[in-house]
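Please, structure for the following, as tokens.
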Amino acid sequence: MKQRSLGIMAFLTLVLLMSFTFPSLNDGQKTPNLQDSSKAQSRTESKGVVKWYTLEEASKLVQSNPKKVLVDIYTDWCGWCKRMDKDTFQHPQIAKYLNENFYPVKLNAEQKGDINIYGTTFSHVPSSKGRGYHEAAVMLMKGQSGYPTVVFLNEKLQPITVAPGYQDPIDMDQMMRFINEGHLEEGISFNIFKRNFRSRIKMDK
């Protein structure tokens, strides 16, 4: 057990060091009240056309057909997670672009069961005062605890950036295209990209 804990801590340290070289996509973004969910129904998988995978499934798919990965990290009690499912991930244009250019992954930050990725086993950590947390979610979120959180990974499952908070369809369109079109690799900042970006998303009035 001690050896496994030391291995996980070493891996988390490596991920954090890698991630600090990338900019945050959420500078200046609104952060909603993530506790406003008392009247929301239990979250289910999006009913739209997004083809969701598990982390383990995506880790195998990138080996045969490399694509970047978008991870939607949520909890069952999170009202803003449900709203982002409905407003953003079920938007036809978002779902189409996401399916074509990424492996979309859903990860419950409090789910039970082990997840085997990066040659490491990540587990649920119980808590006497709450629902506990999953080590894989903590690793991907770089220690943040707000939900929803979107994490982008490259074709080798290395972290690109983390975007905490609710993202509407236009926000999501900006982020996906910035990451997928390689602007980050070209040294273009997200703030400069946003100034010139014209979303193709049509929002209901």
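Confidence is low (pLDDT under 50) at residues 5-47. The longest strand covers residues 68-74.
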